[in-house]
Amino acid sequence: MTRDSRTGAARRGKCPRCGRPVLQQLVGRLAALDVTADDEQLPADRAAALRTVNRLDWCLRTTKAGTELQWADCRRRRTPCPRPHVVDHLCTGPRVPSPVPSRHRPAPVPAGQLTL
Ligand SMILES: [Zn+2]
Predict the structure, then answer these.
(1) CB of 38 within 8 A of CB of 89?
(2) Number of domains in the chain
(3) 34 within some domain
(4) Which of 4, 33, 45, 107 places its Cα 20 to 30 Å from the Cα of 11?
């Protein structure tokens, strides 16, 4: 769980691979997205310029619970959003080695029988 279960606000932390400060939160109520964003606040237009298909920008709102990431649907307004924005974290840290594949082989089965 990346949302502070008591307040619903984003948690501040560090990326375990590169050590950069990040914000983590589940954004959305029904189909929540597990977001890890750079903890570097940008004006809305600069964050939108960094937005790609695989890297979203998020609107930071300060509530009484703390800092909360919300969908940046504020960009649809005619006036620029005055709140700070952040973008998804793109990690530049070293890759975590994948686990060594198991040498386990399934037990042979008689001809005609399907393995499950
Ligand atoms: Zn990272």
Answers:
(1) yes
(2) 1
(3) yes
(4) 45
